[in-house]
Amino acid sequence: MNEVLAALLGYAIGSIPFGLLLTRAAGMGDVRKIGSGNIGATNVLRTGNKGLAAATLLLDLAKGLAPVVIAGQLWGEVGQAFAAGAAVIGHCFPVWLGFKGGKGVATNAGVSFGLAWPVGLAYAFVWLSVLAIFRISSLAGMAAVVAAAAVAPLFGYPQFFPVLAAIALLIIYLHRTNIARLMKGEEPRVGGSKE
Hints:
This protein has 9 helices and no strands. It is mostly helical. The chain has helices spanning about 1-15, 20-25, 40-45, 50-90, 105-115, 115-135, 135-155, 160-175, 175-185. The longest helix is centred in the middle third of the chain and has 43 residues, at about 50-90.
């Protein structure tokens, strides 16, 4: 029962579409109608408003962090794992938007910090490093999610490897069109028209 409650908590918080809410509140319309059509920070950046994009990034990160921390206090590590997976699923498949959301990279950053801060630091380091070097958002995100799963057992958190690995597989799957463009050398850099 605790696992169900943790999952419901994670999904409820994770499914809040901050990117859409912020752009609408700012009078910029529906972010799903530009760029990649996603509700994440990378697509919000395509509105030209860096402040909104930064706010979306932080709020999407927070909605991954918050349920994991709360679940940990209430139900321990098992609850954390269920809340973590559900938070990312909520972001990617929010019921409020017909189950069409973002790709989960920023939310999973928050999840990683919530599960174990060393894993979160590794996530952030890989994400920012790859982004700085290649300036390709999708590549940085995929590298980070794989890194989080890989370092969890190395840093002494093997109990979180299954959920982080499952999340990584989901996020990589959601980036399948990006992978196809990467293989063709057609994936745009940050500031391009697609994600």
